[in-house]
C-alpha cells in the first residue's frame, strides 16, 4: 500500500514487518528517526513480541544485538558515523561469530572536523569487516532492502548493513509502497538458527582460535561471501517476483547499451546522475549509469560484464581514503584489469556537499580528468592553506 | 541432596563443590595456572547457580584469563551454553541474551555475565552501568584479581594502593600504585539501586555458593564481586590461594556483605581478626613495603583502609555468630 513517508519511518515500517525480536537503540543523527519509529510501532502494539532496549552506547547497542542473535532471536539496531566507529570492535565480532544481525547505517561523514551530514566515509570504514553491505538508492529501496536483508543474513549466516544516505533519504518524504504483513511473512520465513545458546545442547561460541585454525576460519569467511553473490542476485529476482518492483540484487544499470561512458555510484546520488546522463545523451552523448546495490561481497564479475564495453568509467564516490584517493574507483580499476577501460575517480559530496546535475554534467563532459577529481572544490578556500603547506621546508 | 563424598565433615552444610555430583560447569583440563583463584571462583559460582536453577544457566564471558585458559579451539572446558564476545561488552551481550530468552518465553534460563576487574571495573564499565540502570535480568560476576593478569599483570582501576604491577613498579620514592583504594565496584553497583549486590571470596566457598545461588534466582540486575587471588600476579606460592583470600577477609581489606536495593542488609563478621601486614607480607606485590627503607606511612594507610571497612561494614564486634 502506498504511503507518503519519511525515509526513516518507511524503514521502521518495513522492519516491523520482518518481526525482529530484539531491537536496541542508541541515538545518533541521522539514523535516530528509524529507532524512534520502531519504538512507536512496538509501544502501540503494531509490532508485538519484540524486546526494545535503550542502551548506553553504540558498543552496547551492537553488543545487545550480538547477545540477542546468539540466543536465537532476530536482532536489529541502527547507527551512523561516529557511532559506527564506537562499536567497531563489535562490528568485526558479529561477523566473526556469524550472527545474522541487520543494522541500518544512516550514512554520515566521519570527524574530525565534526560534521553530521551525508557521505559514505562511515560505511567505508567497515568495508573489510565481513558484513554484507547494501546501498539504497531511494526510500522505497531502503525499506525493501531491509526485508531482503534478514533473509539473506540468515541464509548466509552473516550480518548485513543496509546503507541509507543520511538526511537525503532518512529525512526526506517520499511515496513508499509498504507491503502487507502476509506478503512479508510469505517472503521471509521465521528465523531458525542452526546453533544458539541452548541449555539442552550447550556449546561454546566465540572461543579463541590459534594459528593452526585461524587462516581457515578467515578463508571460509571469504568463500562464504563469494558464494553469497549468486544468492543475493536470486533474492533480488525473488523480491521482484513477489512484490512487483526492482529492489536489491547486485547491480542496477541505466542506459548501459551503447554507452561509451558509464558512471558508477552507490546510494541516492544515482538519481541525480541519471538525470545528468539523460541530458547529456539528449545533447548527443553516449552515457550510462550503474548503481552498485551490493558493495560487499564485491560483485567483481558482474561489474566487469556491465562495464567491459565502455571506453570510460567514471566512479562518483562519497568517500576518500586520505593518502591514496578514491576507494571504490580503485576496486573497480582492479575489477577491470585486462579490459581497455579508463577508470576515473571523482570524489563528491563529502560532508553533505551538494551534488548538482550541473556539476555532474560539467564533470562527465570533460575530456581530461585529474588523477583524483574533487567535485565542486572551492579553490578560494584551499588556496591559502595549500600555499602554507607547500612553503614548509622538508 | 546427593551422597556426600568422603571427608565432608559438616553434613548439614554441604558445599556444592564437595558433592559427588557437582556439575563441573568449568570442567578439568583447562589451562589456568596452578592455584588460580579465578578458575576456582568461576567453577564455584557457576556450579552453585547451576544447581540452584536445575541446570538452566547461560553464560556470557568477557575477554581475559578466564576466557583464554578455558577454550582454545578445538578444546573447551565449559559445560554450559557459553558465549565470548569482547573485552568490554559482556554485560550488554548478556542483556541481549536475557532479552532474547524473555522474547522466547524462556525466562527460566538465567543469564550470567562474567569477567575480571579489567573487563568490568575499567573497559566494560559503561556497558555494566547500562545493564544495572536498565535492571536487565542478568547476574554479573566480577572475579577481582586486582590487575590485568592476562596481559602480564598491569595495573587496573581495581588495583589496591601501593601494589606492585608491571606498570606500577616501585622505584626510588615511588611506592607502587599511587595511593588510591581501588575502584569500589560493589559500591558503584549499589548506587544503581539494583535488587542485589554482594561481595564474596574464594576464601569462603560456602558463603560464595550461597550468594551465587541466591543471586541467580532474583529477577533483575544482580552483581557479585568475588575476590580471587592470583599467585602469578600477586607473587605467592600456588598452594596459598585460599590462605591469602582468607587473610584479605580477616584483616578487613575485603569485607563480605550483601546489599539489596542499594542498602547493606548483611555483613559477615571477621572470625579471627588479623593486621593488614599479615595479609600483605606473603605477597611479592607488597614486598617493597617491608624493606628496610620502606616508609611506615604506606602500611598505615592500608591499615587505615581496613579499619574504615571494619567500622563501615561492622565487621568486628557487631553481630556475634
Walk me through the structure:
The complex is a heterodimer of chains A (394) and B (321). Chain A has 394 residues and is an alpha/beta fold. Chain A has two domains: 2-243, 3-Layer(aba) Sandwich (Rossmann fold); 251-388, Rossmann fold. Helices cover 42% and strands 19% of the residues of chain A. Chain A has 14 helices and 16 strands. Chain A has helices at 7-17, 32-43, 58-70, 81-86, 88-96, 121-124, 139-156, 181-187, 211-243, 269-282, 300-307, 328-335, 357-365, 379-391, and strands at residues 2-6, 22-25, 51-54, 75-79, 102-107, 132-135, 160-165, 173-177, 204-205, 251-254, 261-265, 287-292, 294-296, 312-317, 342-347, 372-374. A seven-stranded mixed beta sheet of chain A has the order 3-2-4-5-7-6-13, sandwiched between helices. In chain A, strands 10-12-11-14-15-16 form a six-stranded mixed beta sheet, sandwiched between helices. In chain A, strands 1-8 form a two-stranded antiparallel ribbon. Chain A is globular. In chain B, helix 1 (37-52) crosses helix 7 (205-217), helix 3 (90-103) runs parallel beside helix 5 and helix 4 (117-123) crosses helix 5 (125-134). Chain B has helices at 37-52, 65-70, 90-103, 117-123, 125-134, 185-191, 205-217, 231-234, 241-251, 276-280, 296-312, and strands at residues 57-61, 82-84, 110-116, 138-144, 196-201, 222-227, 257-260, 263-267. In chain B, strands 2-1-3-4-6-5-7-8 form an eight-stranded mixed beta sheet, with helices on both faces. The two termini of chain B are 26 Å apart. Chain B has a single domain (16-312), classed as 3-Layer(aba) Sandwich (Rossmann fold). Chain B has eleven helices and eight strands. Chain B is globular and about 65 Å long. Helices cover 34% and strands 13% of the residues of chain B. In chain B, 56% of the residues are buried. Classes of the chains: A alpha/beta (394), B alpha/beta (321). At the A-B interface, strand 3, helix 3, helix 5 and strand 9 of A face strand 1, strand 2, helix 3 and helix 5 of B.
Amino acid at each position: 500500500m502506498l504511503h507518503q513517508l519519511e525515509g526513516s519511518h518507511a524503514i521502521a515500517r518495513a522492519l516491523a514487518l520482518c518481526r525482529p525480536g530484539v531491537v536496541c537503540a542508541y541515538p545518533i543523527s541521522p539514523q535516530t528517526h528509524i529507532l524512534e519509529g520502531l519504538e512507536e510501532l512496538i509501544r502501540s502494539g503494531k509490532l508485538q513480541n519484540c524486546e526494545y532496549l535503550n542502551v548506553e552506547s553504540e558498543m552496547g547497542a551492537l553488543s545487545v544485538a550480538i547477545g540477542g542473535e546468539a540466543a536465537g532471536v532476530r536482532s536489529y539496531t541502527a547507527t551512523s558515523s561516529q557511532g559506527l566507529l564506537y562499536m567497531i570492535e563489535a562490528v568485526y565480532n558479529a561477523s566473526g561469530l556469524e550472527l545474522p544481525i541487520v543494522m541500518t547505517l544512516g550514512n554520515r561523514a566521519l570527524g574530525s572536523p565534526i560534521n553530521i551530514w551525508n557521505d559514505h566515509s562511515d560505511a567505508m570504514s567497515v568495508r573489510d569487516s565481513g558484513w554484507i553491505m547494501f546501498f539504497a538508492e531511494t526510500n522505497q529501496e531502503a525499506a525493501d532492502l531491509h526485508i531482503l536483508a534478514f533473509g539473506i543474513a540468515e541464509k548466509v549466516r552473516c550480518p548485513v548493513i543496509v546503507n541509507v544516505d543520511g538526511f537525503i533519504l532518512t529525512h526526506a518524504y517520499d511515496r513508499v509502497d509498504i507491503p502487507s504483513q502476509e506478503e512479508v511473512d510469505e517472503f521471509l520465513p521465521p528465523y531458525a538458527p542452526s546453533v544458539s545458546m541452548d541449555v539442552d545442547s550447550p556449546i561454546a561460541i566465540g572461543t579463541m582460535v590459534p594459528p593452526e585454525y585461524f587462516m581457515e576460519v578467515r578463508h571460509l569467511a571469504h568463500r562464504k561471501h563469494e558464494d553469497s553473490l549468486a544468492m543475493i542476485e536470486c533474492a533480488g529476482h525473488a523480491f521482484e517476483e513477489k512484490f512487483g518492483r526492482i529492489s536489491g540484487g547486485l547491480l542496477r544499470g541505466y542506459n548501459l547499451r551503447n554507452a561509451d561512458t558509464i558512471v558508477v555510484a552507490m546510494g541516492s546520488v544515482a538519481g541525480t546522475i541519471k538525470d545528468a546522463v539523460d541530458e547529456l545523451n539528449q545533447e548527443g552523448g553516449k552515457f550510462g549509469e550503474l548503481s552498485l546495490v551490493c558493495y560487499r561481497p564485491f560483485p567483481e564479475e558482474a561489474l566487469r560484464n556491465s562495464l567491459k564495453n565502455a571506453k570510460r568509467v567514471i566512479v562518483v564516490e562519497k568517500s576518500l581514503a586520505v593518502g591514496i584517493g578514491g576507494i571504490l574507483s580503485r576496486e573497480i580499476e582492479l575489477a577491470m584489469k585486462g579490459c581497455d577501460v579508463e577508470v576515473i575517480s571523482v570524489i563528491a559530496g563529502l560532508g553533505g556537499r551538494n551534488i548538482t546535475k550541473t556539476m555532474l554534467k560539467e564533470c562527465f563532459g570533460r575530456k581530461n580528468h585529474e588523477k583524483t577529481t574533487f567535485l565542486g572544490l572551492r579553490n578560494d578556500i584551499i588556496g591559502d592553506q595549500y600555499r602554507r603547506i607547500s612553503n614548509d621546508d622538508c | 541432596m546427593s551422597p556426600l563424598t568422603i571427608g565432608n565433615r559438616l553434613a548439614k552444610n554441604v558445599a556444592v563443590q564437595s558433592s559427588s555430583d557437582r556439575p563441573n560447569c568449568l570442567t578439568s583440563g583447562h589451562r589456568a595456572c596452578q592455584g588460580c583463584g579465578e578458575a576456582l571462583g568461576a567453577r564455584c559460582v557457576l556450579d552453585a547457580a547451576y544447581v540452584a536453577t536445575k541446570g538452566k544457566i547461560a553464560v556470557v564471558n568477557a575477554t581475559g584469563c578466564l576466557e583464554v585458559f578455558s577454550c582454545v579451539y578445538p578444546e573447551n572446558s565449559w559445560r554450559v551454553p557459553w558465549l565470548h564476545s569482547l573485552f568490554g561488552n559482556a554485560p550488554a551481550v548478556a542483556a541481549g541474551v536475557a532479552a532474547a530468552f524473555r522474547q522466547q518465553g524462556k525466562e527460566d534460563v538465567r543469564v550470567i555475565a562474567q569477567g575480571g576487574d579489567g573487563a568490568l571495573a575499567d573497559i566494560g564499565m559503561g556497558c555494566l552501568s547500562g545493564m544495572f540502570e536498565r535492571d536487565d535480568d542478568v547476574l554479573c560476576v566480577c572475579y577481582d584479581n586486582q590487575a590485568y593478569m592476562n596481559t602480564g599483570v598491569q595495573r587496573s582501576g581495581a588495583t589496591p594502593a601501593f601494589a606492585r604491577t608491571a606498570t606500577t613498579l616501585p622505584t626510588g620514592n615511588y611506592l607502587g600504585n599511587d595511593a588510591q583504594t581501588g575502584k569500589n565496584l560493589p559500591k558503584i553497583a549499589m548506587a544503581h539501586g539494583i535488587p542485589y549486590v554482594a561481595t564474596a571470596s574464594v576464601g569462603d566457598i560456602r558463603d560464595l555458593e550461597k550468594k551465587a545461588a541466591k543471586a541467580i534466582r532474583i529477577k533483575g540486575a544482580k552483581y557479585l564481586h568475588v575476590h580471587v587471588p592470583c599467585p602469578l600476579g600477586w607473587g605467592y606460592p600456588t598452594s596459598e590461594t585460599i590462605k591469602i583470600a582468607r587473610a584479605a577477609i580477616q584483616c578487613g581489606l575485603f569485607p563480605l556483605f550483601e546489599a539489596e536495593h542499594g542498602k547493606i542488609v548483611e555483613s559477615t563478621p571477621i572470625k579471627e581478626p588479623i593486621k593488614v601486614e599479615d595479609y600483605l607480607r606473603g605477597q611479592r606485590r607488597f614486598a617493597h613495603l617491608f624493606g628496610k627503607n620502606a616508609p611506615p606511612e604506606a602500611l598505615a594507610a592500608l591499615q587505615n583502609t581496613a579499619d574504615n571497612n571494619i567500622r563501615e561494614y561492622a565487621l568486628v564486634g557487631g553481630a556475634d555468630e
